[in-house]
């Protein structure tokens, strides 16, 4: 099996096993441990060694993994950082979700992030996330849960009952989206359903208290296209960047300080204890370099690549792009630029990326939003402002961003990992 095919197989496995940020962090943690990384607890005192490999999580949904420099201090080496986010737009289950109408058992759901809602209809859905409960010993604990099999669906209304459906139908998030779970003569108890599922996985459960659960599409990630040049999957934004950053981290043999941070809650603004606008990364850097002057020197010698997928030009809607800045799938990673600092790219950071890409003949594209349209943002400007590190915003081009099933290029995956690996090996940034 070629290296590319092996990487694609690993990616598909990662995507399928990561229906929520909790599961994504669990998968990433497992790979780090297999590669010799030590998982630290924020509550403990740390004894770090030169060249040591470490990782720490917060809320089970954000993770930072890093390697200490081997022959220089952190203030001399700085960090080569890659940042991404673990969350994706989805439908979250409400705290009191039970709906019983006309003999059907449904769940109340809440929209998380900027979801493209129409593709969620008529899909085979399941549930996954984290559940907090009282165990058999009376202790508060939590566990991840994944029903895996299709158990829910949001049926479309037949066109016979809505003749204008193809002319444009506004989707009411409150009334259109509650999925069907089955049929019942009485209102079921959703927490009892969770209790049963937890017990099947070996947990001792006295009472389910609360949860953070999401619906997800059970269809497997896949390679599609005449030459299998496309990756089709849920949550490519932004688990694809998490995977590429982790793969580059594990492959690189740099003796310099390298760091990967994958934060939760980007799709809803990043303002949380585990989000990029929260203190997680800053607090870690303070622990690693407590003295203020040396920490400032460390950050001055550091650089962050914020990796979040970019808008590829859609052949059916090409007028939605600036004519000179329409990235194409499989034509290389995209440097994202915005004059109003919605992206943190500068000419210095973009030039460094271009120089790295040339080494492996990796093509590079650019994205600038049309001047008459608003621009999205990433963790790049947030991280740059929070810790004062020079930053570049890049992304793999994709189509159908924020849909339940997105599309990216398989060649872009391997090319971007190559550039990330070069970045991690830099002596100076």
TrEMBL record:
Q: Which GO terms describe its molecular function?
A: aminopeptidase activity; metallopeptidase activity; zinc ion binding
- One Pfam family it belongs to: Peptidase_M18
Which cofactors does this protein require?
Zn(2+)
User: Any one Gene Ontology biological process term?
Assistant: proteolysis
Q: Which GO terms describe its cellular component?
A: cytoplasm
Recite the UniProt keywords alphabetically: Aminopeptidase, Hydrolase, Metal-binding, Metalloprotease, Protease, Zinc
- This enzyme's EC code(s): 3.4.11.-
Q: What class of enzyme is it?
A: hydrolase
> Per its UniProt record, what SUPFAM superfamilies does this chain match?
Aminopeptidase/glucanase lid domain, Zn-dependent exopeptidases
CDD domains listed in its UniProt record: M18_DAP (cd05658)
- Which family does the entry's similarity section mention? Belongs to the peptidase M18 family.
* Protein name, per record: M18 family aminopeptidase
């Amino acid at each position: 099996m070629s290296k590319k095919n092996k990487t694609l197989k690993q990616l598909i496995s990662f995507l399928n096993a990561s229906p929520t940020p909790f599961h994504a962090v669990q998968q990433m943690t497992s790979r780090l441990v297999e590669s010799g990384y030590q998982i630290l607890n924020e509550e403990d005192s740390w004894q770090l060694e030169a060249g040591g490999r470490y990782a720490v999580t917060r809320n089970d949904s954000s993770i930072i993994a890093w390697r200490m420099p081997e022959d220089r201090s952190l203030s001399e080496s700085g960090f080569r950082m890659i940042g991404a986010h673990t969350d994706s737009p989805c439908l979250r289950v409400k705290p009191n979700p039970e709906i019983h109408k006309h003999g059907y058992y449904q769940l109340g759901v809440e929209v998380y992030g900027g979801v493209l809602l129409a593709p969620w209809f008529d899909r085979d859905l399941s549930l996954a996330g984290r559940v907090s409960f009282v165990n058999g010993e009376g202790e508060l604990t939590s566990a991840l849960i994944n029903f895996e099999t299709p158990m829910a669906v949001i049926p479309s209304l037949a066109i016979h009952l809505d003749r204008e459906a193809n002319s444009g139908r506004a989707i009411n998030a409150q009334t259109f989206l509650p999925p069907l779970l089955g049929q019942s003569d009485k209102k079921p108890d959703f927490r009892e359903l969770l209790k049963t599922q937890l017990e099947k996985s070996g947990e001792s459960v006295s009472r389910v208290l609360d949860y953070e659960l999401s619906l997800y599409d059970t269809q497997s990630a896949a390679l599609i296209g005449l030459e299998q040049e496309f990756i089709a999957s849920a949550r490519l934004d932004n688990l694809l960047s998490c995977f590429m950053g982790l793969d580059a981290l594990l492959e690189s043999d740099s003796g310099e300080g390298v760091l990967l941070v994958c934060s939760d809650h980007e799709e809803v603004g990043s303002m949380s204890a585990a989000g990029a606008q929260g203190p997680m990364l800053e607090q870690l850097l303070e622990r690693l370099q407590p003295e203020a002057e040396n920490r400032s020197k460390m950050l001055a010698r550091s650089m962050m690549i914020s990796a979040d997928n970019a808008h590829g030009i859609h052949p059916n809607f090409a007028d939605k792009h600036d004519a000179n800045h329409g990235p194409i799938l499989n034509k290389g990673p995209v440097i994202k630029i915005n004059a109003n600092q919605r992206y943190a790219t500068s000419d210095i950071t973009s030039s460094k990326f271009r120089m790295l890409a040339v080494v492996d003949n990796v093509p590079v594209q650019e994205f600038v939003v049309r001047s008459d349209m608003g621009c999205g943002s990433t963790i790049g400007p947030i991280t740059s402002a929070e810790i004062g590190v020079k930053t570049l915003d890049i992304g793999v081009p994709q189509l159908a961003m924020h849909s339940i099933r997105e599309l990216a290029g398989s060649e872009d995956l391997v090319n971007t990992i190559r550039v990330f690996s070069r970045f991690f090996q830099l002596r100076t940034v």
